[in-house]
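Structure, all three chains, one model.
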Amino acid sequence: MKDVSLAKTYALHIGIIALLFVLNFVLPDYHQGLFARIMTLAVFAMGYNLLFGYVGLLSLGHAMFFSAGLYGAGLTVYHLGWGVPEAFVAGVACGALLALVIGLLALRTSGVAFMIVTMMFAQVFYLLILYFAAWTGGDQGLVIQQTSRALNFGSTSFDLTNPTVRYMSALALFSVVLFITLAVVRSRFGRVLVAIRENEERTRMLGYDTVANKLAAVVLSGTICAAPGAAYALLFGYIGSSFASVQYSILPLLWVLLGGAATTLGPLIGTLFMYYVTDITSGFTSAYLLIVGVALILLVLFAPKGILGSIRQRWLGWLP
Amino acid sequence: MADKNGFFDLSKTTLSRRTALKGMAAGAGLALAPGFVRYSQAQSSAPIKIGFQLHRTGIGAAYGRWYERTSAAAVKAINDAGGIGGRKVELVIEDDGTDPARGAEVVGKFAKQHKTDIVFGTLFSHVVIGSAPAAGENKIPYFVVSEGHHVASTKLNRYVFQPGITDVKSQIKSMAPWIAANAGKKVTQIFPDFAFGYDHRDYLPPALKAQGADVIAQIAIPPTESSFTKYFPQIPAETEVIYHVMVGPAVLTFVKELGEFYGSQRPQLFGFMDSLEAVDINSPGLEFLDGSHFWEGSPRYAQPDDSAAQKAYRAAVGIDDNGAAVGDPKDVSTASHMFGCWETLYVVKKAMEDAGYKGPEDRAKLVEATEKLKEFAEGPEHPQGPKIFNGKIHQCFGIQNISKVEGGKLKVVHKTKIEDGLYEPEGDYTTQAL
Amino acid sequence: MHFGPHLLLAALEGLVTSAVLALTALGLSLVFGVMRIVNVAHGEFFMLGAVLAWAISTAISGHPAIGFVAALVIAPLMVGLVAFFAEWLVLRRLNYNPESTIVATIGMLYIIQQLALTFYGPEARPVEPPFSYRILLPWFGYSGYKLSVVAASAILLVLTWLVLTRTRIGLIMRATQYDRETAQAFGIPVERVYAGVFAIGAMLAAIAAVLIVPISQAHYLMGQDPLLLSFIVVIIGGLGSLRGTVVAAILIGLSDGIISMFFSPTLAKIIATLVVAMVLVFRPQGLFGTTQR
């Protein structure tokens, strides 16, 4: 039974990645570009989901991890002239380091206090970006020039601004993080995290170091969220403080809840849904926020566990 | 009132088709010049599509509403006079939510989905900067009406232009002589602690220094602030002029609190109209501004010496003598900025006609043709005043107004010269590949 | 300006911020405490109160005080009604599931914002204060209206406290907050209590907004900052503690004003936020909260 679901799980995930790969050649130009963005931001949602969905820690400050990656990668390219791979690593490292520090402090709290503490640290991070505007460009942000966004392997050079290269880079990032998530969820570590979500006290009684496990989850989540931030700077060429604002902390929460918390593919579906609802409705009415709002309420009324969460509940119990 | 004086003859290199376009009438409509119809038939009948990146929602919405009206009026005027190169112009509008990330997506949508010829109309600086890479990658000309210094800084790319409104660095520079001579020599600056404010922070002190005046204090207000009184004690007592440039919905609070703090014994006040765009100058609490001075891009209130072109422009856009929407005195315009939409669209028209623009395959030619432009004469196409254009930095430079608040109206007391605002170019876009 | 007067001014400003914040946060605290849900739309109820105040006060001619008083009565009632229906239409059906209510209230936030933008517009509009008296101190002038806001807020807070502690309604609310199941077993109509609490919470935000709108202005995006600050105040004060909420509001209001005396404004904001965050890190249950659960 278990082997069957394992096979199904891998078949599904590989199938989704294959589908996304094929879509690159099928989608019209505009949607190809939009999908590249959606996959990048879905990774942000996946990192968020790891902490929120599996550990049950609701953070309202994940924009700081995303923007740590964004600025870590963007500023090293802009000021130090680093290449794409080094800058990406720098961005992810910034996110990991920040997540460690924030985790050590914020995990002293739990529940709503954790939510507020993370929000306030993110606010500090946002204000720091403005305070050091001489380097960060503040609210206006900075443009990473096209010439510095090329990936060189020996003699071959990939221009990240080329739509297909960009799409494939986003897909690669998405695939790697998807399998990391899947591996974590299926690992012993992942099961401890779920146990903490369900009953932290009991998990501790059973001899697990819940604090260390939660810290590991925060660091992993923060690191994963920094990766799409770094990728965003390099793929789309803009860094700005709006990515560190509270709005970008609420968005991944929204995407995850829409797609289905604690599902591996939910973040992608939620992001996709939100993007396309906005994109399509803004085409025929200027009051599209109204429709987005109504859509959110209807969705939560009729699929309270999110799109994929409700599907899993009703039909596909084996979904990870 | 039709213009027979060759206002449209802007450059020395005459093209026959341009001379065919002669006149524009004030008020109700715009007259067709003779000889026009013949030309228009020679062209493809498909409309020229202009992607309008509009702040319909988000913090820029008050501006967006007027940018939309002004642009619609300009497009109507252009179409009534035969369009661009004989083709009708059509605006395709997408809301960017005043958000840089969405802005970049919208530019992509214009380029790839709507397949517009150009993108146009962005105001807020962070949206311009966030969208610029997308414009460069899609190789689609991007005409912004932002007044930010970002285009002229040459930090963006070759596809971004600002030909319809003077940038803020130039505006500040041209204000300094008047402030030093008329308002006072000891200036305290109050500005928002973000990029728009930094232009003022960085460019005013040297400009005043050159005029023998000094900035004695700089007070940067955090962007999240909604009350200001607690910062006022930082204003030095010897201050002769308070130079203020606040933006956003909290501006009224700022002025009111300044009024409560100082009462009638206040230093001179000099502000940028950005603070009070779309806000009625006669709102309760703003009495305190009486007698103070403002920079205005284009005067909000009708002035006695308004040109025929200015009157025609106001009528076409639909603003009354008080700068509010005709029929709704509470709906106050953003006069200091929105004229830039009108003028930019005429620059686009001129450049497209110069380039012999046929479709998206000619975008590079359009960029080069725009870069070749040198000056825009005052007239129906440029009702705010004459401008010169620097093709290397993609930025225009025009005259500025200094207005005094008097009896609940703004009265222009000084007009600067174009030369007052010129500065050394910081780079050259034309060296970049197309 | 000398240190003394400067401190006085910073303290006065801090008090006004605190007064409005305390009312807004109290509304959130009730909803948060009794219903155990995170109401992301709370700031939009605040905005709605301000926008309605503008609409009402401009519709009524005569002395500005008449329009203002009318707004102070009508706007909160209307906002309360909106909240009541939102609760009845949506939240009840979600069974107050904490996660679903976040999405649902984000949905409400979008809807209310868009409606305000469509029908009210993108401009910031001022409401005339009921009276404009400028108190002239030896060093600076200060708005008399601002001080009256502090007084009005204090009165309202005391009233709320009396209702919560001395009346049957208060008792029922506290019982529901303490233990929902037991309250239900004792015949308390929990659903009606929830609807009422949600409406009262929104009304408190609306009252705070009507009070502030003659000082700042009504704008369709004004809801975000009060929302975030209210969350902070509620948690710092300690969930469910009225006294904590008030003390935290004063603490945050005053520290914001006074820290700004010593540092450049943005740096002051950074330090103030960090200090408050650290309070929570080292006292996770808040100042006056008991340990959770």
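The CA atoms of residues 259 and 266 of chain A lie 4 Å apart.
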